[in-house]
Amino acid sequence: MTLSQKTIHRLAVGLMAAYLVALALIVFWPTPVDKPAAGFLDQTISWLHHHGMPKFVGYAQIEFSSNILLFVPMGVIASVRLKSVWLSVGIGFLASCIIELSQALFLSARVPSVLDVVANTLGAAVGAGIYFLAHRRLAVEPRQSSKESVVELVKTSKEYRSK
Question: CA-CA distance, 81 to 25, in Å (whole number)?
Answer without folding.
Answer: 23
